[in-house]
Amino acid sequence: MTTEDIEVWMVEEPSRRHEPEASHDGIVQSAVSQPLPMITEDEAMRATYLLGDFGSAQPLELHNDNTVIPILLRPLEIYLGAKWDLPADIWTFGCLVFELVTAEHLFVHERNQKFDLDETENMLYQMMLYSREDFSGAQLQASPKAPEYFNADCKCRNTSTLKKNPKLFGGSIQTRFDEMKIISDEDATETTRLMERCLCLDPSHRSTATELLSDPWFDGVE
């Protein structure tokens, strides 16, 4: 469909049109609330797709840690109130890769009854499991909310543990793929390696978007 086709269609079926809504930087104009007419299977196979979701996006300079990035895709620096930048999107991409491959979330935002962890503590716990890394003392010192979740001695140690000290075992990205058995072992290994480049606890250790494009996972993609 062309832009003109969409405009004509919206005029013909005004019930699908939203009223303009207020935004932080102006007014969001009318949007379509229902799917556009489906294209044929042949057209779908030849189409070019752009995947995007800006529901929690905001201008970089605002750095509002309360709303940026959906909660299950949110990196640790936002949970801990630390400064964030472009590597936050790389973390989110790593989470989305898992969702696109498995149709399930990598993380769960719920209480962990076994270790008596609240939702945020459990998210931080899962991050340590899947990254197979520890939070560094320097990283926690730069995180205003870290004292809520981590031992007070994080200022004098290279690494620190959660206050409730849950045992770290039985979890990795590769293990999740092995348990689900929905892709081949080779694909699971390649996908795990790509995700591990994104899901580093230290934002400076995450690959850039340009670096990720050279990953073997994208071989054959134009």
From TrEMBL:
Keywords on record: ATP-binding, Kinase, Nucleotide-binding, Serine/threonine-protein kinase, Transferase
GO BP annotation list: regulation of RNA splicing
Chain ranges of the Protein kinase domain: 1-218
GO cellular component: nucleus
Molecular function in Gene Ontology: ATP binding; protein serine/threonine kinase activity
Family annotation (Pfam families): Pkinase
Superkingdom: Eukaryota
Signal peptide feature range: none
Classification via InterPro entries: CLK_kinases, Kinase-like_dom_sf, Prot_kinase_dom
Annotated PANTHER family: SERINE/THREONINE-PROTEIN KINASE DOA-RELATED, SERINE_THREONINE-PROTEIN KINASE DOA
Official protein name in the record: Protein kinase domain-containing protein
